[in-house]
User: Fold Transmembrane 9 superfamily member from Morus notabilis.
Amino acid sequence: MGFSSSRWPLIRRAFVFLVLFAHACHGFYLPGSYMHTYSKGDAIFAKVNSLTSIETELPFSYYSLPYCKPSGGIKKSAENLGELLMGDQIDNSPYRFRMNMNETVYLCTTSRLNENEVKLLKQRTRDLYQVNMILDNLPAMRYAQQNGVNIQWTGFPVGYTPPNSNDDYIINHLRFRVLIHEYEGSGVEIIGTGEEGMGVISEADKSKASGFEIVGFEVYPCSVKYDPEAMLKLHMYDSISAVSCPGDLDKSQIIREQERVSFTYEVEFVKSDIRWPSRWDAYLRMEGARVHWFSILNSLMVITFLAGIVFVIFLRTVRRDLTKYEELDKEAQAQMNEELSGWKLVVGDVFREPECSKLLCVMVGDGVQITGMAVVTIIFAAFGFMSPASRGMLLTGMIILYLFLGIAAGYVAVRMWRTIKGTSEGWRSVSWSVACFFPGIAFVILTILNFILWANNSTGAIPISLYFVLLVLWFCISVPLTLLGGFFGTRAEEIQYPVRTNQIPREIPARKYPSWILVLGAGTLPFGTLFIELFFILSSIWLGRFYYVFGFLLIVLLLLVIVCAEVSVVLTYMHLCVEDWRWWWKAFFASGSVALYVFLYSINYLVFDLQSLSGPVSAVLYLGYSLLMAVAIMLSTGTIGFLTSFYFVHYLFSSVKID
Assistant:
């Protein structure tokens, strides 16, 4: 009953080999990016991402404004599927830094601003658009004070409008502060995956790897009025005297027609003790950890309360009733059935085929696919495999997981279909419906939103080429895998009902209040475990903040699964107790109704927390994406509740002896 003694030497040798191998590697894994080391004077060029705003949620290209362009022309960086879907458009820029060399540099002077350029600059300024710059895969960080509190933002504004003024001023001088750590090649082997691909620094490259590594990138923007005639005599990257940011508006660069805008920047390199693996800590610094723990404790209280109800009902009431029922002979059971009320009376109807059974199977299959995608993605992210340094990887990973989990969706849906119908006939139609139901809803919503983005010339619009890529992934990977899963479902062992179904359905007693009120009310309990974390997620999506507390999110997800299961089981038992045998859809929506509260909370967040969001276009985009999220949550939580209730009902009535 254990390991034989002959196996222990083999295990010990394997363990010793593993330890020696780990010691010989002298390495560690750094998710997200490949470490670059630079020698003094090496040229490093910053990149620019799309302009973004928390007021409109419409991203635009950096070069849609009259900014300085690189001398070699604009070149787009390679982008993954997630970046394209998120509206990222990363281009090269003329901002050049020379490692560990402080300098103040002239960039360019624009031609005289015309009416359209002035109108666009003013609009982007008043809509609070931010310029997002990237250096060595680090976003530019800006520190500011608001109501006496130090806050940090990524990016810097296009311009600013002084209080009680109709004039707008452009940000045309940037002071960069680059934190560097002096790295001496010490035999550390580094393997990383990032936008530049995979790279290894081995022992042979030790001397080459010595140098400086970038561990921080800060920007301090200001507006400075220059003499355009003097500036036009300069060339790009010419050194100029130090620039001090003026406090007087008369010395700032106003946005108006016929003005020439000169762009300059200065860079200061500061040595830092921050190590390269810790350089993202400043961006991912978690605020409000106590709030997250409060959310978890609140969820645990709800779970404990529901678990108490479940144990009282099932370990005492149900067990006692079953014991009494089984001790009687057949005549006494028949007499007892006439006297008893409750779930025991619906034994001949509890497994009667529900209305719209095909739709139920399809929604359960899609729910399994979405739940599996969410669980696996959050587990990988919680263990650090989804680094924010790899932009778009989280969304790309979710899409790939969703595609390949089509096999699980098809299997569950077809097996449930066989169980309800008693035959495999029609399984192909069920599999096709599973493959097209949720993706079809997502496709329609995203297409409508995409037309809105196209009409506004936003970089958030999905290119036509990407549409074809998504359709190919859908019909060439997801659909075949779902059909394969459905085929496996036809070959799986059929779930046998423990009791026979009567030919004539039993009449359901009239109730004082409609059952859907109880079903909708049940959704408040799962929502109570979710809403605090939902606030942080919405803030991350719509306010441009980093969300990287996936450990908390994993705990909340596990608690949500438990609450959904408990709520659905309790509600199913309550319906059976009042002789209502139509429990199938009610079990699904008892936990799935949490999606309604999520959508209502999203509207509340729009009204009270996104007050800066301006215009009907922005509101339609927000509500469209929120609706898509709510549908996914409904399918996922509804599936969890339904499957738990199904196995509970199966177990409950398998204990009843009946002819």
